[in-house]
From TrEMBL:
Organism: Bacillus mesophilum
Catalytic activity: tRNA(Asn) + L-asparagine + ATP = L-asparaginyl-tRNA(Asn) + AMP + diphosphate + H(+)
A GO molecular-function descriptor: nucleic acid binding
Name by which UniProt lists this protein: Asparagine--tRNA ligase
Organism classification: Bacteria, Bacillati, Bacillota, Bacilli, Bacillales
HAMAP family named in the record: Asn_tRNA_synth
Length: 430
C-alpha cells in the first residue's frame, strides 16, 4: 500500500511503501535508525539486521543524507515518536544517491543557511513553519468565504501609488512609468462598490531600506474591503479573523507547533474581542514607561509597540492616529479633525504591527482636498475619485501582513523564516 508519512496512522500494523528522502540517520551495530521525510511529515524507520536481507541492511548503513528512496515497512505505534508511529523497515530502494549535502546536522550560520535556502527548507523546523503558513492561508480563504466575501485580484503593476512613490519599485510600462504594487487597497475599494465584501491575497513590494527582523522587500498581504462598514465594525472583522486563523493553527498544526517549541498557552488566549487603546492614551502610557523622547505626532517604533503589547496577552488595537501620520484616504474622526478613524493591530511577544486598517473617506470633496494636500496627481486618481461620485457609501478595510503573522503564530524570531524565499535588502538569491 503506497501512502504518505502524514497518513501512516491509517495503516497501523500494515506494510506500506513511501517515497521519501533521508533526513538523518544513525546506526548501532545490528540496528540502524533512519529519519525519513516526504514533504507531508517526518517518521523514524528502524532497520533490524536480523529481520532484513544483507543488502537492505548495508543500504541502510551506507545511504546518505538527502538521498531519495522508496522505503517499505510495517507501521507501528510508538508513543515516544512525535508522530505517534514509526516504521519497521523491510526494504529500501535508492532512487538517487546524494553526495556531500551541504546542510549537515551541525550548527550553521544564518548567512550560510540563507544562501542555501532552497535546501534549508527541507529541515524539520523550516518544514513546520511552512506548514503553519499553509494552514493560515487555508483558514484565511475559509474565513472569508464563510463570511460572504468574494476574492478579487488587484493588479501588481500600477500607474500610481496609494501612499506615495518614495518606497516603490519603478519600472517602464512601454512608454510610461509604472510601479510594483505596495497595496491592492484602492482597487479593492472599487471592487467593494461592485461586490459588497471582497478580499485579495497577493504579493506586495516595498522599496524600504530596512534590515530589521520584521521587514521584507516582497511579502504577501490579505486585504479585505467592505461597503456599508464603519470603523468599529471593521475592527470586529479583524479580531474575528485573527482569532479564527490562530485557532485553526492550534487545531490543525499541533505537531508543527511542538516541533518549533511554541508556547501554545499564549496562543490559546487569542480570542475576540481584543483590547483597544487610543494613540493619545498610548502616548501617556509610553511616558509612564520611561519613553520620554516620544511626543504627540510621532510615529511609534518597534520598542514603543512592544512596550504597549507587553501590557496585554492578546493583540491590541492602537486607534485614532494623528492625521499627519497616515495616508490621504483615511476618514477623519467626526469629533476632531487632527486624528483619523484608523487602527494598527499589534501582535503580542514583540512581533509588532500585523494589521493596518481604517474607515476610508467617502466624501468626494474631502478626498479631492486630501489628494491636493498630498500633492498627488489628480489625473492618476481620477478613477478613484469617481468611486465617490456614483453611489458613495461609508466603507472600511484593512491589510494583514502574512509573514509577520506567520512569524508570530509559529514563534520564529525573524520574518525571513516565514516565507519560502525571502527578499531582503541585500538578498535576491536564491
Amino acid at each position: 500500500m503506497k501512502t504518505t508519512i502524514s497518513e501512516v496512522y491509517k495503516h497501523a500494523e500494515k506494510e506500506v511503501k513511501i517515497g521519501a528522502w533521508i533526513a538523518n540517520k544513525r546506526s548501532s551495530g545490528k540496528i540502524a535508525f533512519l529519519q525519513f521525510r516526504d514533504g507531508s511529515g517526518f517518521i523514524q524507520g528502524v532497520v533490524v539486521k536480523a529481520d532484513v536481507s544483507e543488502d537492505v541492511f548495508q543500504t541502510a548503513k551506507t545511504v546518505t543524507q538527502e538521498s531519495s528512496v522508496y522505503v517499505t515497512g510495517v507501521v507501528q505505534k510508538d508513543e515516544r515518536s512525535p508522530l505517534g508511529y514509526e516504521l519497521l523497515v523491510t526494504g529500501i530502494e535508492v532512487l538517487h544517491h546524494a553526495v556531500d549535502y551541504p546542510i549537515t546536522p551541525k550548527e550553521h550560520g544564518t548567512e550560510f543557511l540563507m544562501d542555501n535556502r532552497h535546501l534549508w527548507l527541507r529541515s524539520r523546523r523550516q518544514h513546520a513553519v511552512m506548514k503553519i503558513r499553509n494552514e493560515i492561508i487555508r483558514a484565511t480563504y475559509e474565513f472569508f468565504n464563510e463570511n460572504g466575501f468574494s476574492k478579487v485580484d488587484p493588479p501588481i503593476l500600477t500607474g500610481s501609488a496609494p501612499e506615495g512613490t518614495s518606497e516603490l519599485f519603478a519600472t517602464k510600462y512601454f512608454d510610461e512609468d509604472a510601479y510594483l504594487s505596495q497595496s491592492g487597497q484602492l482597487y479593492m475599494e472599487a471592487a467593494a462598490m461592485a461586490l459588497g465584501k471582497v478580499f485579495s491575497f497577493g504579493p506586495t513590494f516595498r522599496a524600504e531600506k530596512s534590515k530589521t527582523r520584521r521587514h521584507l522587500i516582497e511579502f504577501w498581504m490579505i486585504e479585505p474591503e467592505m461597503a456599508f462598514t464603519e470603523f468599529d465594525e471593521n475592527l470586529e472583522v479583524q479580531e474575528q479573523y485573527v482569532a479564527y486563523i490562530v485557532q485553526a493553527v492550534l487545531k490543525n498544526c499541533k505537531l508543527e507547533l511542538k516541533t518549533l517549541g511554541r508556547d501554545t498557552e499564549k496562543l490559546e488566549k487569542i480570542t475576540a474581542p481584543f483590547p483597544r487603546i487610543t494613540y493619545d492614551d498610548a502616548i501617556v502610557f509610553l511616558h509612564e514607561k520611561g519613553f520620554d523622547d516620544i511626543k504627540w505626532g510621532d510615529d511609534f517604533g518597534a520598542p514603543h509597540e512592544t512596550a504597549i503589547a507587553e501590557s496585554y496577552d492578546k493583540p491590541v488595537f492602537i486607534t485614532h492616529y494623528p492625521t499627519s501620520l497616515k495616508p490621504f484616504y483615511m476618514q477623519p474622526d467626526p469629533n476632531r479633525d487632527d486624528v483619523v478613524l484608523c487602527a494598527d493591530l499589534i501582535a503580542p511577544e514583540g512581533y509588532g504591527e500585523i494589521i493596518g486598517g481604517s474607515e476610508r473617506i467617502h466624501d468626494f470633496e474631502l478626498l479631492k482636498q486630501r489628494l491636493e494636500e498630498h500633492n498627488l496627481e489628480m489625473d492618476a486618481y481620477k478613477w478613484y475619485l469617481e468611486l465617490r461620485q456614483y453611489g458613495s457609501v461609508p466603507h472600511s478595510g484593512f491589510g494583514l501582513g502574512l509573514e509577520r503573522t506567520v512569524a508570530w503564530i509559529s514563534g520564529v524570531e525573524h520574518v525571513r523564516e516565514s516565507i519560502p524565499f525571502p527578499r531582503l535588502l541585500n538578498r535576491l538569491y536564491p
